[in-house]
UniProtKB/TrEMBL annotation:
Keywords: Membrane, Transmembrane, Transmembrane helix. The keyword Transmembrane applies. This is DUF5317 family protein. It comes from the Bacteria. The chain crosses the membrane at residues 31-48, 60-78, 143-167. Pfam families: DUF5317 (PF17248).
Amino acid sequence: MMLILAAVPVALCLLLARRRGGGLRRIAHSEIQALALPILAFLLEAAFQAASRYVRLPDGALALQVPIQYAALLLFAWRNRRFDPGAWAAGAGALCNFAVIALNGFCMPVSSTSQAAGMLAAGEIYGYALRDASTRLAWLGDVIPLAGGFASVGDLLLIAGAVRLLYAMMLPRREEDAHGTA
């Protein structure tokens, strides 16, 4: 869901950066640090999600995956806190998501009005659980209705921060602007 939700902001980001003389080729020369960390976090989640479709993962799998995944995101945000304010937004989003997931048995609570409520109630969707009266920090769960699903406050902050970081990585550096070099 996050990838779909991020598609429009990323497209706008690409257009705006291009208009300001930037582009994707500048990412390799940006001063961003530890870019492998969010990639690792994404791949870790994708691997566990894919594996859960074919085998029943051990009960402790989420308790192992989630802290590693969010530690990578938080470390990335911390390492880039001086690079761009987007790192703070991404870090805040990661912290919101980690808090609600950790406090709810390492599952993201999802609104009971979700189309997948039956599957969630049966525990058939890896890493997600149906929100109920016992849910802690329910307002941080996937409760914001969107076309095709739900998002969380943390998701929105993560996306905003990531898009802002992408934009900053694509822009020409100030020294290049001052000297007219690319």
